[in-house]
Amino acid sequence: MTIPVLRRMLRRQQLPRRLERADLEQTALAAVATALPLLAEDHPEPHRALFNAADRDVHRLINTARKQEQREQPVAVSPDGPAPAGDYAEEGRAADWGEERDEYAVLAAAVQSGVLKAQEAQLIALTRLEKKSVKEIAKQRGLAWRSLYRHRVAAEAHLAAHLRRQVSEV
């Protein structure tokens, strides 16, 4: 009973370009096969537990592929436009930054290299450097604060990985 439901679910998924339906089916079946021996014999809804295991792994695979695609897409930064992570490029304010100037420069460089989007860098700058509340920013943007928090965590992870790669290259 689980397999037909999984097949219907997989047909409805919007796939990233690099992912094929066969990969999804293989991931779903592997998740079901992995979860099956772990189920207790008296489990009240084994079909739901198997479906949830497959659904979780399939979505993890899709999200990973989408993130990979997003990282590979270049970010267009206009030299004539405002600074990507907010208006931190003003010459007059540079003297007031002290050590924080380096953090803003790192964020701006990450946006220019395509590691972060401008909104992600701005979110990190506002919440981490300027100490604004994630809930306050989420309210301003009309988003759920948990969603915004997850976006910030993911952006920080991308930035950290990028900085680690840069350090290892030196």
Order of helices and strands: HHHHHHHH
What sort of overall outline do the alpha carbons produce when their principal axes are compared?
elongated
Rg over C-alpha atoms, rounded to the nearest angstrom: 21 Å
Biggest sheet statistics? none
The secondary structure category is: mainly alpha
Residue windows where pLDDT falls under 50 for at least 5 positions: 77-100
Strand residue content: under 5%
Number of helices: 8
Fraction in helix: 55-70%
- Could you give the distance between the termini? 55 Å
Whole-number mean pLDDT: 78
According to DSSP, the number of beta strands is 0
Q: What's this entry about, in short?
A:
The chain is an all-alpha fold and 170 residues long.
Characterization of this structure:
By secondary structure, the protein is an all-alpha fold. 69% of the residues lie in helices and 0% in strands. The protein has helices at 2-12, 21-35, 46-72, 91-97, 100-112, 118-129, 134-141, 145-169. Helix 1 (2-12) packs parallel to helix 3 (46-72), helix 6 (118-129) packs across helix 8 (145-169) and helix 7 packs across helix 8. The chain is elongated, with a radius of gyration of 21 Å.
List the SSEs and their pairings.
Layout: H1 2-12, H2 21-35, H3 46-72, H4 91-97, H5 100-112, H6 118-129, H7 134-141, H8 145-169
Provide keyphrases for this structure.
8 helices, elongated, 170 residues, mainly alpha
